[in-house]
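Bench log. Compound arrived from synthesis this morning; before running ITC I wanted a structural hypothesis for how zinc ion sits in the protein. Inputs:
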Amino acid sequence: MQCDCQETIEARVAEKVKESLPEGFTDFSAALEGYVLTLTSPMETRLTIAYEGDVQVPKKSGGGFKRQKIKTSIQATYCPFCGKAAKSEEKQEAPQ
Ligand SMILES: [Zn+2]
């Protein structure tokens, strides 16, 4: 992501949650789900939304169906909080 919304919002939410906890709490550990480090170069953290479910597909041997899991994900193109592009700008081609 090209912004610091993840860190900023995580900090704000943590502050709010901590306010609601009884005094003396310990080992606080929480984070926004869905931010995934991508294997691009340079590596970037992108907001990723899971797409999961299942489907009944016919068995190859014929007769009957079996459940097949569906599990993939898509990456957000823009930050949902500030609207900035998630991916760093492509290098501009030098004008000819
Ligand atoms: Zn943002």
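What the model suggests: The CA atoms of residues 36 and 45 lie 5 Å apart. Helices lie at 5-19.
ITC booked for Thursday regardless.
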